[in-house]
């Protein structure tokens, strides 16, 4: 790794398999006019081929040593470096029509995915390498064991596609888990939207906090006056059986009944 020691606190696993890099870049299909942002460029495995297709690239890097290395390797008119934690970055300040890519640190993947949802209106698409288990949860369908809070919250905002798996030996140091690449495309304003995003998030979180229980028990006093038939939800249903649209309808009903505040 040319003298750089991977740092556990940053969750660093550097992609070193050229064939995997080529597959990821092919999936991204960068165009010269793209406003591309890479999270965690590391040792430039993706940065280098992206810059072969782009006149300019923005990267977000938390590791000062790696940022300095990038600064030495690429001129500032080609590579704009944002030094800092991606969890604290205001991506809307980087422009509109963003295409965001990255081999995301597994230790912050879920918080980072939730952080990025607030900028979905300025994003065209996202391509990420993540832990396979996380990607399986992201794209899971209702009724499956992988379907949970992450599935519902992200599927309410994105259309998502698992592209391919990546073995541990594609990285240095190799992680102890399989990885996968996922494509995320923000849904437009015509998508089903809750009357209160806060209420929707609260209902989904509470429902999956006790996912083995039937919803009417998991949600407790909230559901005493609910007309389950009108909602099209069986009273015996569990959280993992509800679609995104049904969760939205449930949250909207609780708001309309005054059980939850919008």
Automatic annotation (TrEMBL):
Belongs to the class I-like SAM-binding methyltransferase superfamily. rRNA adenine N(6)-methyltransferase family. RsmA subfamily. It comes from Candidimonas humi. Its main location: cytoplasm. Its EC number is 2.1.1.182. S-adenosyl-L-methionine binds at residues 13, 15, 40, 61, 85, 103. The keyword Hydrolase does not apply. GO terms for molecular function: 16S rRNA (adenine(1518)-N(6)/adenine(1519)-N(6))-dimethyltransferase activity. It is found in: Cytoplasm. This is Ribosomal RNA small subunit methyltransferase A. Signal peptide: none annotated. Keywords: Cytoplasm, Methyltransferase, RNA-binding, rRNA processing, S-adenosyl-L-methionine, Transferase. InterPro entries: KsgA/Erm, rRNA_Ade_Mease_Trfase_CS, rRNA_Ade_methylase_Trfase_N, rRNA_adenine_dimethylase. Residues 20-188 form the Ribosomal RNA adenine methylase transferase N-terminal domain. The lineage of its organism: Bacteria, Pseudomonadati, Pseudomonadota, Betaproteobacteria, Burkholderiales. It comes from the Bacteria. Specifically dimethylates two adjacent adenosines (A1518 and A1519) in the loop of a conserved hairpin near the 3'-end of 16S rRNA in the 30S particle. May play a critical role in biogenesis of 30S subunits. It is an enzyme of class 2 (transferase). It catalyses: adenosine(1518)/adenosine(1519) in 16S rRNA + 4 S-adenosyl-L-methionine = N(6)-dimethyladenosine(1518)/N(6)-dimethyladenosine(1519) in 16S rRNA + 4 S-adenosyl-L-homocysteine + 4 H(+).
């Amino acid at each position: 790794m040319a003298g750089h020691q991977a740092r556990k606190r940053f969750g660093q696993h550097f992609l070193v398999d050229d064939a995997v890099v080529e597959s990821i870049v092919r999936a991204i299909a960068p165009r010269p006019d793209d406003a591309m942002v890479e999270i965690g460029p590391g040792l430039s495995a993706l940065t280098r081929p992206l810059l072969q297709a782009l006149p300019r690239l923005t990267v977000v890097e938390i590791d000062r040593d790696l940022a300095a290395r990038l600064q030495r390797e690429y001129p500032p008119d080609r590579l704009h470096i944002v030094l800092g934690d991606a969890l604290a970055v205001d991506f809307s300040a980087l422009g509109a029509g963003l295409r965001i890519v990255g081999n995301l640190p597994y230790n912050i993947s879920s918080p980072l995915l939730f952080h990025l949802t607030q900028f979905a209106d300025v994003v065209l698409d996202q391509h990420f390498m993540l832990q396979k288990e996380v990607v399986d949860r992201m794209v899971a369908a209702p009724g499956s064991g992988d379907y949970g809070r992450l599935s519902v919250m992200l599927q309410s905002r994105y259309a998502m596609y698992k592209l391919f798996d990546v073995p541990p030996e594609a990285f240095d140091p190799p992680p102890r888990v399989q990885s996968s690449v996922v494509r995320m495309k923000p849904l437009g304003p015509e998508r089903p939207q809750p009357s209160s995003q806060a209420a929707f998030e609260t209902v989904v979180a509470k429902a999956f906090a006790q996912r083995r229980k039937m919803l009417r028990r998991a949600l407790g006093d909230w559901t005493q006056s609910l007309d389950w038939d009108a909602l099209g939800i069986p009273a015996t249903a569990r959280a993992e059986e509800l679609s995104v649209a049904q969760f939205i309808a449930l949250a909207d009903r609780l708001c309309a009944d005054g059980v939850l505040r919008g």
